[in-house]
Amino acid sequence: MHDFDLTGRRALVTGSTEGIGKAIAQRLVLAGAEVILHGVTADASAALLQQELASTGRPANLVTADFADAAAVDAMISSVGHVDILVSNVAVQIKESLGSIQSTAIDHQVAVNMKAALRLIQAFLPYMQAQKWGRIVMIGSVQESVPHPDMIIYAALKAAQANMVKNIARQTAGEGITVNAIAPGVILTNRNAAVLADPGYAKGVLAGIPARCFGEAEDVAGTALLLCSDAGRYITGTNLPIDGGMHL
C-alpha cells in the first residue's frame, strides 16, 4: 500500500525558515523525513524552527545561501550532498509597474527564481536517477495564470518554471522520479500580512477568490507531502493550484 511515510528519505526545502516553506518542512519532518532547512541567513526564525523540530526528536540541519549569488548556491549544494526530495520554494518578488522595470531587478529575479532553481535540479537529479526514486516539487504562484500588473517579471518567471516542470517531468518519468509544481494563491504568510492588514484591500482580494477566504501555509504543505511521498508516485508533470479557485 502506498502511503505518506517518508522515513529514511532526505529532503531539502529551500526558503524554509518561515511561511510556506516552514510549513512544508514541518510536515515532512512529521512524516519521518530528515529535513535540511534553508535560509538566506541563520536568523532568529531559523533558530526557533530548529528548536521546534528538535523537540520532536527529529532535529533539522540548516544551510544558508543567497540564491542571487551563484557561487553561494554551489557552495550550499556541496555542503548538502545528496537528497531524495527537493522542494524549491525560494522566490523573490520585485514590485514595479511596466514603465519602471529596471534591468537590475530583472536580473535579480531571474537569478533567484529560475537560475538557482534549475541549478538545484541539475545538482540533485543524478542521485535520484541512480537510485530510481526522487521527488522534485517547485512552489510556483497563482500569478502564472492571474498575473499581478506590477509583478510582470515575477509572474512570467513562475509561468516559465511551470513549463520547466513539465519538460523535466517528461524526461524523468520512467526513472521513478516525479517532478511537480504547486501554485499557491493568496496565503496568510508574513510576506502578505502587511497588504492584507488593509481591510479595503483585503476585501477586494477576497472578491476575486471563489472560496471567499485566504489560504493557510498548511494547505500548501499537505499537497507537498502528497507529492513527496509514495502516495503521489503516479503524479508527475502537473501544476496543482492551491488558491481557493482564484485561477478559474
From TrEMBL:
Cross-referenced Pfam families, in alphabetical order? adh_short_C2
InterPro entries, sorted? NAD(P)-bd_dom_sf (IPR036291), SDR (IPR050259), SDR_fam (IPR002347)
Catalysed reactions, as listed in the record:
2,5-dichlorocyclohexa-2,5-dien-1,4-diol + NAD(+) = 2,5-dichlorohydroquinone + NADH + H(+)
Q: Where are the transmembrane segments?
A: none
Q: Which family does it belong to?
A: Belongs to the short-chain dehydrogenases/reductases (SDR) family.
Q: What is this protein called?
A: SDR family oxidoreductase
Query: To which species is this protein native?
Result: Sphingobium algorifonticola
